[in-house]
Structure formats: C-alpha cells, structure tokens
Description:
Blueprint: H1 2-7, H2 11-17, H3 22-34, H4 41-51, H5 63-73, H6 77-89
Helix pairs in contact: 2-3
Amino acid sequence: MEARTLKGISQKKLGIQLGMEPGSASGRMNHYEKGRHTPDYPTLKRIAAELDVPVAYFFCESRIIAELVCRIEKLSEKEQKALLGQIKCIKEDPSA
Length: 96
C-alpha cells in the first residue's frame, strides 16, 4: 500500500494497469493490500514492476528494511558487492 500511495496511484488505476476489469480492480487490489487474498507470484511481479519496487519489498516487516531493499536493488552489481563487503565488516553489537 505504501509503495502505491507514494506513486500516487489509486487501487483501481493500479488494478487496471495490471489488466484487471475496471469494475473489480479496486476491490481486488484492496483485498491484496488488506491480506484477505494473496496474489500469485506472476501478479506480484507485475505489481512490483508497476510500482518500481523489487518483489522482496512486499515481504519486508519494517519500513527501514523495505527502503534498504529498494535502494540496494537500484545499485549496480559492483556496488551491491561493495556494500555487502562493508556490511560483513560491521561487528554485531549486542547492546545496539
């Protein structure tokens, strides 16, 4: 839902862009957002593509992790590897 609202797209418009019937698009998207129904993986990929987020975004349990996933996805593979190396160097601090 947050990715959709940040894009400024209504549930109905997103559903229509995904190929849903205009009469049911808003309702179907609402059911997905509320967790009443779960889209299949191909539909989830299309939703992610429309919202310009990686599929993993939908499985993040916090906004911080979701934002990290989005930012990491936009990095080149070389930049991702460099970031991974930096993260591996961070020592776990139990008091943090």
